Write the structure tokens for this entry.
Amino acid sequence: MSAGHTVELESLFGDYPLDQAFDEMREGGGDVRSHYRALAETLARLPQDELQRRKQSADLSFLTQGITFTVYGRDEGTERIFPYDLLPRIITAQEWDRIERGLTQRITALNLFLRDVYSDAKILNDRVIPRELVYSCKHYRRQMRSLQVPRNVYISVVGSDLLRLNTGEFVVLEDNLRVPSGVSYMLTNRRVMKRTFPQLFHSYGVRPIEHYSQLLLATLRSLAPEGRPEPNIVLLTPGVFNSAYFEHTYLARQMGIDLVEGRDLVTHDNIVYMRTTDGLKRVDVIYRRVDDDFSDPLIFRSDSSLGCGGLFNAYRAGNVTVTNAFGTGLADDKAVYAYVPRMIRYYLDEEAILPNVETYILSEEKERQHVLANLDKLVVKAVGESGGYGMLIGPQSTAKQREEFARQIEANPRNYIAQPTLDFSRAPCLIGNRLEPRHVDLRPYVLFGDKVSIVPGGLTRVALEKGSLVVNSSQGGGSKDTWVLEQ
Amino acid sequence: MLSRVADSLYWMSRYLERAENTVRQLDVTMSLMLDTGGASAETRWQRLMASLGKADGVPWNGDMESMARTLVFDGLNHHSVTFALNGARENARQVREEISTEQWQRLNRLFHHMHSPHTLVQFRSNINDALASVLDGIHLFKGVSDTTMIHGQGWQFIRMGRYLERAYATATLLEICQPELFHPQEREHSGYQYLELVGLLRCCTSFEAYCQVYTAELAPDRILEFLLLNRDFPHAIRYCVDCIRYAIESIQRTGGRRPPEELIAIIGRLHAMLGFTTIGEILAGDTAGFLHNIREQCMHIHESIYRYYVHYSIQSALAS
């Protein structure tokens, strides 16, 4: 780097703080990491307004495309764009290789666990995981016992959340095995990025992710019931008021399949049909974006009108594939999560490539006492929640909130877990005219049909508020494009 | 194609056509009011409401600006332009995966335009410009619909909605206007009569097209003939019915299921009625009844389409 650039870089970073948290772009001493150097030089060369101009043009492109999500708890149907940060998050080929192997191992083990628990329950009989923990999980579905699922695949679409600790190591924070969302943002972020920094993108040698929709379609096709060579595949959405409705329409369009709602489906003699202008048409594979509870009022919640009565029986009869399977939420329960490394050892006889975050199980007396005594240092989470709801971040909490959580933990210890407050990695974001570090996570998307496939990258979520540790879109999070390098 | 999706596309299109028709008729009425002769403002307003099929839509209150504003912007009034455009956008949003990105963006932009305070300001300072900008938005949407969407079943449902709504609206307009048309008040100066006739044609954007066929010599029977029986002009009822018939044939071709005899019969009858009747015969008989009959047939077609494509009984579908 020439001397001139060093000066420009300094003005770009200004008083950009560095501390013990891992910074994605800069080493502890302040030097730019080698794989971020070209990006830093490009930024330093751009006139100040130019960066702002590109940011505005990117925002406008999201708005006119209607790439929005719905915020709950406000006026019905409030649409917002998902904030997008202009600077890419870059992951080296070496780092990615480890992530890819680690996730493949993990998903394989989790799938074996689901298959085991819903059939012979060997892992429980061998006392590797407490029986009580599994059977008390609110996502455990007794109806799934002894049910043969196609190709023994329970979880075909997964989005696991990874964090990078201050050692530089990636760990798994949680697995989303029910209806993970966000993949449309990964895809649209890339499209916008290619228009924002075309030359830089080209010079970096970034691995493509655009074939995700095709892979997803192939995965769904591979799970079709026997004897249906030209399966009719549909995406089941709760409808226009769901927060991820944009994503449902996007994926359906990209795959060229029908987007159906529960009211479009009818069952007869254990076969699912959809109402078309041409009469009833048989449905073979359902990519389900509706929670278990709302999928079939005859089996699950009877007050739900989002699903289709009789769907579960058709599924049990093997006449239709529904994926992800029902009851997979059992394996992403935050208390069961603590046992995933033991599952990997038990089923695969391997050590976990991607470690877990240390987790306290609060139904264990000793661990609970420790947690209650240290609530101000820990993060407490409700086991069945997602989206950043039902969470206490100790160091940022008030005494009143801690009391409230302590009471709830005592009342129902099985419903909570605790983890140390993680100082996870930060990446530079464009805030105003300057670069400032913000906490980021990484959600890669894993597909599992006849084999496991992961598109290189994922959604990097950003906690846009200064100092915030919450990256969820419902709580003021944004996202970045994620570049996995060829080499 | 999913029945729900077909239904949404059909209604999206009907709502847009309805909005367009309302804007155009309002525009014509406002400009006719500039000339002091002829009917009173109140009569004109009531005639406008009646020809929009909304006799009590926006009651007369003497304040033209406020009534026009209600008819355009009041989203709570079921007869307003904004209400129709909201309906169109809501239907489009529910079938976002079926329409093209360009269509969605156009409609989205028009929706935001209607709700922007700037538009209301423009409306206050120049109603004509404001109405023209709404029409532009609708025309752009139709244009990208034709050029960016695959001309499959979905597109045919859009066409069906558009032409059914248009045929119905034109028949209503003619039914309301025809007594005046053939029995003008004696004291009316011929210049005013001319303006009335031009106004009627402009309500159907057909003044220039009419002149190309008949020259600028405006005669009530020719106008009626043109708007009812012309086979080449997109706002003539006969043209609309031909398009509906063609759309149903295309849907059958791509789907394969034969529409019920009932639907084929109603459309066939209407098609024949408009194809093989002369204007002389219509005028010699019960003209109002003839026009009213067209409206009823349109209603039957709508019900039949709904019963057959959208809301059919599961039991009968399983049986076939």
